[in-house]
Amino acid sequence: MSYKEAKEAYAKIGIDTEQALKVLKTIPISIQCWQGDDVNGFENKLGATGGIQTTGNYPGKATTPSELMSDFKFALDLIPGTKRINLHAIYGITDEEMDRQFVKPEYFDKWLEFAKENDVKIDFNPTFFSHKLASEGMTLSHPDKKVRDYWINHGKTSRETAAYIGKKQNSPCLCNLWIPDGLKDTPASRLNPRMRLKESLDEIYSIKYPKEYLIDSVESKLFGIGLESYTVGNNEFYQLYAAKNDLCCLLDTGHFHPTEKVSDKISSLLCFNDKVALHVSRPVRWDSDHVIVLNDELVEIAKEIVRNNATDRVIIGLDYFDASINRIAAWVIGTRNMQKALLYALLQPNEKLIKMQDDRNFTDLLVYSEEYKTMPWGEVWAEFLKRENKPQDFMPEVRKYEQEVLLKR
Ligand code: RNT
Ligand code: ZN
After folding, report:
1. Strands 29-32 and 83-88: what pairing?
2. How many Å from the N-terminal Cα to the C-terminal Cα in the chain?
3. Based on CB atoms within 10 Å of each CB, which residue in 112, 146, 229, 260 is the most buried?
4. How confident is the model at residue 52 (pLDDT cuts 50, 70, 90)?
């Protein structure tokens, strides 16, 4: 079937494929730099610690800024649509010894250049893990004030850096705060660490920046490795903290009980907040951060964004890191999957389906939802790639780069 035939088939059910392609092209996906080097960063070579873990030792990972940028560029060139890049504080580029208390905006000037060259905008994250002072599994909620103050400074200077990036790039930079804080075994006090976290956050967010430069989000979690019994910043904590302090909530799809679905939470947040941020990941039995595949939950998330007219209210970021496969392929296929899910949702007769629900016509709703699954949306996706000048099969190029660059490292 050709794109023309697919377009006609969709027109028959009242869907304009041209409009879908137009919208898809504008939805930004923020791509995590940390897929490129297994969340290592440039500060030390210790690897990720603090409740998160990468597994696998696929050859060729980037270990320097220029390697990471070169790999990232290679991946970005194979991804269609509007892209952003998501950085962590540990990816700052400087000859100075990096002290997390004092993240400096200029550590990210080279990234700003990279972003400009590649026509992408930057999002940012303070890094509260993989550090001596985070090794006890507590940062902003630590009982020792000196430790808390260290991390409060990190939060403050990170926000300053993100606001600088946002101003320079003329697009608000999302600054997402996630901390690993928790306990391995049953706590004696669940309240005290939470009260300390609240106080630390109050300090970090006491400085106000214009919304045109900076959007602050907070990310909750369920548990971490070695911190299985208690997470200080759980969902309830951050939902309420964000609501009371006018911050954005970030939902990571790997940070909830397995039968809870982020797709079901987005609309609840949209009732009360202007914006909701996402870390789209794929938990396999635990928060394993597998590369996202085009599964039911990904499609359901995309539908929630599209049918609630929330493409400019839901900030889509990816958060997976697989060290067991070619990292460039991981970047490309995961991002493309997010876009495929969005396209699938854009090609649904959403208004018609919503009317069926309101009419309590659940038979038609089930029948047509199922029938539309075999509409020729693959042809529309192929057309998107064609118009964006991206190869459908990107593996020959990735393999060539692997041979010529990655395997020589
Ligand atoms: C960890 C959180 C966090 C990190 C990234 C690297 O469980 O999901 O968002 O994965 O910031
Ligand atoms: Zn996350």
Report:
1. parallel
2. 43
3. 112
4. confident
